[in-house]
Specification:
This protein is an all-alpha fold. Among the domains are: 2-121 and 220-259, Four Helix Bundle (Hemerythrin (Met), subunit A), CATH 1.20.120; 299-347. Helix content is 88%, strand content 0%. The chain contains 8 helices and no strands. Helix 5 (159-175) packs antiparallel against helix 6 (178-194). It starts with a helix and ends with a helix.
Length: 348
């Protein structure tokens, strides 16, 4: 019983080694896969944050277009509220998430948002100034119309010319493009050519010139605002695309890791089982070979004694049995010799 227990214990040690190595491969692959999957899960939350930023920027740009179209206080409030919501989302993002997503991108996003908010306010103030100048132009235009209609002006300016001038003025206020600007500017030049000295025309001409200047400044401010808005969109799109790319990379690495673990398991697993089986069977085969030779008559053979062999105790017992068998064989041989000697004496 003790020999069997010891034999099973030592074989179990080798079986543990044969089973443990493939198990460790599976465990290592599982732990690494778990780490990658956990990173993917964390990255999904980062993607959600990036999508929220992107969505809020699109909302800001939508309100920006409405504000540029209507230029009123109500739409300015809508736009400013959207910007404030976007800024709050940036500010409440934890430093850890900022570090993971990209600190430089977040800093650029924050600076661009602050610049954008300032430009929105400046443009709103500018539009209020524009409205004042527009009313000034319209008022001076009506005054000029009245003067010409009453015939108080002795020059060559006709009512039709003034009506056409006012039409060009309205077109310029409506379209604010180069074509309408050139036509209105040419009409003002024509007034100067027709009537070099026209005191009644001076206030209107100065008002229109101020309108040209403030519209030009407004166009520059709109360009700056749209540039800042484009910067916001570019950064948020970059963050969102980057987070999705990171998730794709994590998934690709996870698939590669699983494939490598599967290949190692398929190759090393059977190999280690085969080697373990050979280690376990080798001592038994060795004893079987010795037993076969002894059965053929060679009783001088002995089983090799190895301290860490599973058959150590069995080999000791086997060799002891052979020693006793050899002693018995020698004793029998001596007895046979004595018997032959006695037979020889009896014959004499």
């Amino acid at each position: 019983m003790k020999i069997t227990d010891k034999l099973q214990l030592k074989i179990w040690h080798k079986m543990i080694i044969g089973i443990a190595i493939p198990s460790l491969i599976v465990l290592a692959g599982s732990l690494l896969t778990y780490g990658y999957i956990k990173n993917v899960r964390d990255r999904q939350s980062y993607v959600q944050i990036a999508d929220d930023l992107k969505g809020h920027v699109l909302e800001v740009r939508r309100n920006e277009k409405n504000f540029l179209l209507h230029k009123g206080e109500e739409y300015y409030r809508y736009c400013q509220d959207a910007v404030n919501t976007f800024n709050n989302l940036i500010n409440k993002t934890s430093p850890k998430i900022v570090e993971e997503i990209g600190k430089e991108d977040f800093l650029l996003l924050k600076r661009s948002s602050q610049t954008y908010s300032g430009l929105i306010y400046d443009l709103y103030v500018h539009y209020q100034r524009e409205a004042e100048i527009v009313e000034k132009v319209r008022g001076e235009g009506r005054e000029l119309e009245t003067v010409i209609a009453k015939g108080k002006h002795t020059g060559e300016l006709s009512t039709d010319f003034i009506f056409n001038l006012r039409l060009l003025e309205k077109n310029y206020m409506l379209f604010r493009d180069k074509v309408s600007f050139k036509k209105l500017d040419a009409a003002l030049t024509q007034i100067k050519n027709i009537v070099p000295i026209c005191y009644e025309c001076v206030p209107y001409i100065e008002a229109v010139q101020n309108l040209f200047a403030i519209y030009k400044k407004g166009d520059t401010m709109v360009t700056d605002l749209q540039s800042a808005g484009n910067s916001l969109e570019e950064v948020t799109n970059k963050i969102a695309a980057g987070e999705r790319q990171k998730i794709s990379s994590f998934i690709t690495r996870t698939l590669r890791l699983l494939l490598i673990a599967a290949v190692l398991l398929c190759i090393l697993g059977p190999f280690l089982v085969y080697k373990t089986a050979n280690y376990i069977v080798a001592p038994i085969k060795r004893l079987a070979e010795i037993t076969r030779k002894i059965a053929e008559g060679d009783i001088t053979l002995r089983a090799p004694i190895r301290e860490h062999d599973e058959t150590f105790t069995l080999a000791v017992s086997f060799n002891t049995m052979l020693d006793h068998l050899q002693l018995t064989h020698e004793s029998l041989a001596q007895s046979m010799n004595l018997l032959r000697e006695k037979q020889a004496l009896l014959v004499e």
